[in-house]
Amino acid sequence: MNSPIQSCLEQLHTDIKQLRHGAVASYIPELALVDPDAFGICLVTMDGTAYCAGDTATLFTIQSISKPFIYATALAERGQQLVSQRVGVEPSGDAFNSISLDPQTGAPLNPMINAGAIASTSLVRGATPAEQWQRIEQSLARFIGRPITIDEAVYLSESETGARNRAIAWMLKNFGIIEGDPMLPLENYFRQCSVQVSCLDLAFMAATLGNGGIHPLTGERALASEHVAPVLSVMATCGMYDYAGSWLYEVGMPAKSGVGGGIIAVQPGRFGIGIFSPRLDAKGNSVRGIEVCKRISRELGLNIFNQVNNPRTALTRIYTGADMPSRREPGPLLRAILLEHAHRIKYLALHGYLAVDAIEYILRRIAGLQAESNSFILDMHQVTGLSDSAARFLNQTRLEMKAAGVAMVLSRVKDEYGIRDRLLKSMAPRDMGFLCFEDNDLAAEWCENRLCESMPEVSKPAVTLADFTLFNGVPVTLIKLAESVVSKQNYAQGDCVLRNGDEGDDRIFFIESGKVSVLIPRLQGGHQRVSTLGPGMNFGELALVGQTTRSASVYADSELKCHILKAADLNRLSSEAPELRIRLLENLANDLANKLRPTTQLVSTLA
Ligand code: DON
User: Fold this and answer.
1) Active site annotation includes 259
2) What pLDDT is recorded for position 551?
3) Which of 29, 200, 327, 365 has its CA 20 to 30 A from that of 549?
4) 507 membership: H or E segment, kind and range
5) From the candidates 189, 243, 417, 555, which is the catalytic residue?
């Protein structure tokens, strides 16, 4: 099945290939040798899927499309403050090779015209031109996603005929915009313009900007996220020179053209587009390239000013700790408390990129639930990013709620989207920040503990066998009988109490005080925590039904005191008091049923 996007590109290619007006650039003699009929269209998604039509592998020189990426490199290396002193962000409304300098400072009006681009190149660090070139090369390679090559013939052709750019470079030197010999960075500017790219490369460069600075296929970060918006904004206002206004009006995407016949356009968070067709209009923009972008924007609805985002989609579900309790095995007391109060633990399943509008809606929902809640778990599993202001508001609200005794924690935060960094960056001094749990179960257990610790009666240690679920309803006489064969064992924090796979071990453990974690081995190595047990809970009880090979490991999470009963002893006692064994097996069956219930509930909730 041909993807509708693929068919759309092929149709555009067929239709627009008919356009034959315009002329290839010739002021750089080598450029005049290009095949004027070459024509390619590529669209790349944020996960690196590429749709291509026409000559998408043909190499040509990147020319001015290098400018936003070198401006980005200068921002990354020198910071926005210094760069903005040397290069402005105002559209000049003039042609790309105009000497548009700020009358006061002599700074080029923006980094998309040659003057601003040469200034940007000069800001890339390097003790020597060779070192500077190396940094330019590495940066462009990160955006393209492969090592780069330059077209030496085009480079030499431009360097030999670049008198106008040389004049511009000396002007910039004259105004102190460029330090040292301006011809050195200018040669690197000529080299960057001569970098060989294909239409597909351009689409990946555009998609990298659209994907917040991360290359969608290599996963490498080519630009820090805080520099992405500044680069896209100057592309939107200045990228198409004295056609920028009409472009934004008719196409509505940040873009950049080059006299080699390339155009890139970016739909932030959605697509990167690359087009190659060397016939240019009078303003130096690809004729077919502009036509493709007008149509693709209209047909795929890519105009950024058309984007309707419903913040409500950021919150997909609210449910409670009663719907999704932790997997731990609550003792009778804890279970009673959770039965009554678990609804005060709220889960909020969040989705997508959380900008300020989404966070405003989410925090408004939380505010509406706060009075009846003890804690909120924000499930970030489906969250693909967080804006600075959203992070700030989340931190602010968490601190205010903490002061009101209500906790807000995060679970399943994906590392690749820089969410933790954003939250850390917007934290107040001495703020411990968000508690982030690896999964909802750990978060739920932490919230359950927090809820129960707010109820003093929970942490009382279990003293006799009667406090344990397995002995629920067992007459005192029989309990006394069982206690006659009990042994006691203390463990230090970290001790291994039981090891998965151990055989012939019929001990049943009853936790008097302390906590243990029950772990099972993961197929891919390591362990998965399946539950945590505390006072009043037991483990190893399957020995009662003859299962003496251990199916999990148990480690002491704290100082641990246990009562230990051997199944053999219990069976011996049961020969004289059969009711003991019957009651224990009844309770064991109930216990297993209770363990099963949350799992079936979990499945139905996830269904
Ligand atoms: O500096 C020049 O003139 C060329 N290397 C780049 C100009 C260019 O690509 C203008 N874009 N439309």
Assistant:
1) yes
2) 84
3) 327
4) strand 507-513
5) 189
What's the CA-to-centroid distance between 128 and ligand 1, angstroms? 24
**Between 573 and 327, where is the model more confident?**
573
**Cα separation, 178 vs 176, whole angstroms:** 5
- The β-bridge partners of 446 are none
Strand 436-437: give its sheet, edge to edge: 315-320, 345-354, 375-386, 407-411, 436-437
Which atom of ligand 1 is least distant from the CA of 260?
9
Of ligand 1's listed atoms, the one at least distance from the Cα of 283 is: 12
What whole-number distance in Å separates Cα of residue 545 and Cα of residue 249? 76
Q: Is the CB of 68 under 6 A from ligand 1?
A: no
Determine the residue type at 584: L
User: Which candidate in 44, 87, 259, 518 is catalytic?
Assistant: 259
Cα 358 to Cα 364: distance, rounded to the nearest angstrom: 10
Please pick, among 64, 98, 194, 257, the residue that the annotation labels catalytic.
64
Q: Which two tokens stand for residue 283?
A: 């303003």
Give the model's pLDDT for residue 7: 94
What is the CA 53 to chain-centroid distance, rounded? 30
Q: What does the alpha-carbon distance between residue 589 and residue 544 come to, in Å, rounded to a whole number?
A: 11
Catalytic residue among 44, 51, 66, 67: 67
What is the rounded distance in angstroms from the CA atom of residue 345 to the CA atom of residue 297? 45
Q: Cα(377)–Cα(319) distance, rounded to whole angstroms?
A: 10
Question: Ligand 1 centre and the CA of 63: distance in Å?
Answer: 5
Q: Note the pTM of the prediction, 2 decimals.
A: 0.69
Residue of 65, 157, 241, 259 to mutate, ligand 1, most atoms within 8 A of C-beta: 259
What angle do the packed helices 163-174 and 114-123 form, to 10 degrees?
A: 60
Render pLDDT for 211-231 as a digit per residue (tens, 0 to 9).
Answer: 999 999 999 999 998 899 999
Site to probe by mutation for ligand 1, drawn from 24, 34, 63 as the one with most ligand atoms within 8 Å of Cβ, is 63
Locus of tokens 């009990």: 486
Q: Is 114 in the pocket of ligand 1 (CB under 6 A)?
A: yes
**Tens of pLDDT along 39-83?**
999 999 999 999 999 999 999 999 999 999 999 999 999 999 999
Does 193 contact ligand 1 (Cβ within 6 A)?
yes
Q: Which helix (H) or strand (E) holds 443?
A: helix 440-453
67 is catalytic: yes
Can you tell me the distance from the alpha carbon of 105 to that of 365, in angstroms, rounded to the nearest whole number? Answer: 50
Residue with more model confidence, 519 or 335: 519
Binding site membership of 64 for ligand 1 (Cβ less than 6 Å) = yes
pLDDT, mean over the chain: 90
